[in-house]
Amino acid sequence: MTSINTSNLDQAIVEFQSLPVEEKLAVLGFLFKDVSGSIPESSFNGVNSNEITPLIEQIQAQRSDEQIQTLGDFLSSQNSQGDGVALDPHPSKALLELIPGNTQPALTRYKALDQSSRLAFWYQLGQQFSNSIPSDVSLSPKASELLTSLRSLGAEQQAAFLSQIA
Question: Three-state SS for 156?
Fold first, then answer.
């Protein structure tokens, strides 16, 4: 087993967290596109796809701007783990979520996932959306540098990074 340089990993996480949501998602998209062939499906054995698939479908049904907002909420939710119901941060949507019979909020579904399921969620989402990332996406110099740095890491370090931010 190789050792992971935690200072590089910690620095990458700090840099990632400081990016705007759109750039976070682009960096993740490119990274998942890069690692898609190197992660065997067997890595996700034991993950309940019945939890992940409806969540991905719920996100796919959203408009593009809503998808960005929802996925941004997922990425920022790691800092605010809680046992309560996570309503949409937008008041008009949160009110709709409180009406009996409405679907469970995406953020609540996401927070209910364990770490392995979250990683599988991002992996599957990356698989589905990686082909829709335009090749001419221009990242800021900071995001480009982070992506280059992440691409230079070994598979184990990339997996550690992804599990930390998921």
Answer: helix
Q: Is residue 30 within 8 Å of residue 150, measured between CB atoms?
A: no
Is there a contact between 28 and 122 (Cβ–Cβ < 8 Å)?
Answer: yes
How many beta carbons lie within 10 A of that of residue 85, not counting itself? 13
Q: Give residue 4's identity as a one-letter amino acid code.
A: I
Provide the greatest CA pair distance for the chain: 51
Question: For residues 24 and 86, what is the distance between their CA atoms, to the nearest angstrom?
Answer: 21
Q: What is the mean pLDDT of residues 64-71?
A: 88
Please write the tens of the pLDDT for every residue from 4-47.
566 788 899 999 999 999 899 889 888 888 877 666 666 666 78
Distance CA 155, CA 166 (A): 16
pLDDT higher than 70, residue 61: yes
Mean pLDDT to the nearest integer, 94-107: 61
Q: What is the mean pLDDT of the chain?
A: 78
Q: Which CATH superfamily is domain 6-41+54-165 in?
A: Orange carotenoid-binding protein, N-terminal domain (1.10.2090.10)
Which of 165, 154, 160, 166 shows the shortest CA–CA distance to 34?
A: 154
